[in-house]
Amino acid sequence: MRYVTLSQLFEHPITQKYVKRSGMAHAIACAYHAFRLAKQFQVNPDHATKAAFLHDIGHYTWYRNGQWDYDLYKENDIHAIKGAERAHKLLIRLGEHPRAAKAIALAILLHTDSYLPKGHLHLDPLQRVVALADEADEEPSGDHHYRQISDARARKMLVALDRKVEDALLSWESIDEQSG
Ligand SMILES: [Fe+2]
Q: How far is the CA of 26 from the centre of ligand 1 (A)?
């Protein structure tokens, strides 16, 4: 059962404001990577694609004198925390199941460990898929945040991915029922 689609998320003003700030092309590329990885790791494709699509929704722009300042970012950034909360609020507002909203928010919270004290995270399969999807689209010096995509192309890609998720979800749900 799917409560919220990627296309619905795309149209919401919160997504338009914050996902565009961190890079819509990157968000969509990550959602596609997550779809592929979800199959590989036997993870719910609906949760994986939505978490990957929204994973950078908490980004803030760290500028000093009109230039992106990576040191400032490293020192002060909490985009994963902000993103988890923002994505959760948005999903609930659109009618997401609270259990799915929590799983997606946690995957966003843990998609990077750059803001955490040194240590070792044990990610569950969904969290792992989202972190790997992000890594798969990363470019040197953060260039993936600046790649552009038109609204028309973004919509088309998300409608296509929504269809793929719906198909994949049918077989995923039957596997999930058998195993649990
Ligand atoms: Fe990212």
A: 7
